[in-house]
Amino acid sequence: MAFTRLAGIIAIALASSHSAYAATTGAKPVTCSTGQVTANAACCALFPVVSLMQSQLFDNGECGEGAHSALRLSFHDAIGFSIHGGKGGGADGSILQFGDVETQFHANGGIDEIVDDQTPVWQQTNLTAGDFLHLAAAVGTANCPGAPRLQFMLGRPAPVAPAPDLTIPEPTDSVTSILARFADAGFSPREAVALLTSHTIAAADVVDPAIPRTPFDSTSATFDSQIFLEVLLKGRLFPGPNNSSQPGEVLSPLAGEMRLQSDFVISQDSRTACFWQQMINNQQLMISQFKAAMAKLQLLGQNTAHLIDCSDVVPIPRSFTQAIKYPASFSQADVQIACPQLPFPSLATVAGPAPTVAPV
Ligand code: HEM
User: Fold this and answer.
1) Which residues form the Plant heme peroxidase family profile domain (predicted)?
2) Are 251 and 236 in contact (CB under 8 A)?
């Protein structure tokens, strides 16, 4: 049964990689011994790794916890970097290879689980930790409808040392400190907002340990712009037991949903509010900006001249074309608009009573 399902997945992957190849490259295709087509023979070795990831990490192609945490892991690995030096090797896989050190960092709460899940799968491959981890982020993200097909470059050397502590922003940090950390790693405020698109497929386990898997928006299995809307809605409650709150969270608009303090303050700050608002119901802008910022993130600290573009091994995500909507019972009157100079998009409201968002 499991074998039949895996064979089915491989067949679909084969078919889509052929058409993807034709659509995206002009170079002479290489047909791998496994039947897939790619722009560069060196990428052939990755197709079996992608199948392995799908079956052993992502429940056969789901946009679930494995996929979400693979994306978070790529950020926590890569941001261990400074354009001024001295803060780690960037997107080098050090968080996987030196997991015993990096999972102890305060901002890495809950990361031990995905490191434990990925390590035995990584060890079945010949990839370096950095190539494995950043390919897993691209493949996991591709399982989420609406996501961009992220770039994947092959050839990162093995990491030489763990990243130092205190390179990863925390939800209790101020906007100034978060933007300073992103700038130190080479990212503009707009790129920081673009990267936060990732919270559209996110949930928290450790912010409030009493309510694991509490999502940040009401559509955490879809890579849509709902997160940018819901973070702006007036807060009413905390999702924890008896309305209790934890450091790093602020009032959320929906029962069962968690709002990170950092997302909220970034949505309200004059340096970032307009770009945040522009993402709402603007799927194409959102995924193009996220894709570009992720391409930069996943290459931090790497010598790109030595890397091979294997983006065509990444599955093609299903598209998301619907207009996003206010959750039931909400309207524009509930929006905490922080960019009055731009028109706020006109959105419909889902019918019915205010929802309770289920854990993911
Ligand atoms: C200001 C910067 C950021 C802060 C303060 C932040 C903070 C957090 C926190 C506190 C969680 C919940 C952890 C838990 O309780 O389990 C989380 C989850 C997550 N974050 Fe971020 N984050 C930031 C930026 C990013 C970026 C840039 C990415 C990716 C490019 C990212 C991807 C994710 C994902 C995918 C999850 C969900 C993981 C899961 O559901 O297992 N975050 N983030």
Assistant:
1) 127-314
2) yes
